[in-house]
Amino acid sequence: MAIVDIQREGPIAVARYDRGGKANALNEEAIKALIEAADELSADDTVQVVIITGTESRFSGGVDLKDDNLWRNNADAVSRHAAMSLGGVMCDRWRLLPQITIAAVEGPAVGGGGILALAADFRVMADGAFFQFPEVRLGMTLGWGGLPLLSSLIGPTRAKRALFANERIGEQDALNMGLCDKIAPAGGAVEAAKLFAQTIAECPPLALRMTKRAIDQEHRANWAAPYEADQFYLARLIAESNSQSG
């Protein structure tokens, strides 16, 4: 079974990410599959709205900390940096899709999985869904473009609180603070996202794409500084060093 399954329904496509594991965590194979899916959809001019979702019970539990292909613990510095930057490439591809994107979130969207959802234009959360970003507590920064995305959506003070206190942000709080756009019953995130997508798809396709691009260029011009991947890599090295010395 493919890690990312794409189903097209007229101008709407649903990309379902299902790695098959309990946490639906992001390992190197899954990240590459999501990059390929984004590239495929980007080239499809018949699709105007893309819904990205996980399994029926969880969006994603975050980065797979046990995947050596992703962390390359025994590799040289250049190889490790490139491997750790792959998640940022994935989020970039989804953020830069010309189509309108909606993340349909069931259950947890944690760490890198949460950042992938933030890269979408909109988020629909089911009852019981939540965001959580534990990176700072683990001795790392929020990479993959997550810091500017999170702070632009909920403001710098709330972003700091979410990160420093490792807050679990449920669907109602997410809606109140602008992290979520619509709430659906448990198990109904995709269907609610489809209804939202149908409304969006009523707009002329070219106007949709041009308007999205204009808004993003205005408000996200400096969203991902070139040094962000370096900062994430160095923070990871420090965390590893502290763990070994402890």
From TrEMBL:
Query: For this chain's UniProt record, which GO biological process terms are given?
Result: fatty acid beta-oxidation
Is Lyase among the key words of this record?
yes
Output one GO MF annotation. Answer: lyase activity
Q: Keywords, A to Z? A: Isomerase, Lipid metabolism, Lyase
Instruction: Output the SUPFAM superfamilies linked to this UniProt entry.
Output: ClpP/crotonase
Question: Keyword Lipid metabolism: yes or no?
Answer: yes
Q: Which InterPro entries match?
A: ClpP/crotonase-like_dom_sf, Enoyl-CoA_hyd/isom_CS, Enoyl-CoA_hydra/iso
Pfam families documented for this protein: ECH_1
Q: Which family does it belong to?
A: Belongs to the enoyl-CoA hydratase/isomerase family.
Name of the featured protein? Enoyl-CoA hydratase/isomerase family protein
Q: Could you tell me which species this protein originates from? A: Brucella tritici
Q: What is the lineage of its organism?
A: Bacteria, Pseudomonadati, Pseudomonadota, Alphaproteobacteria, Hyphomicrobiales
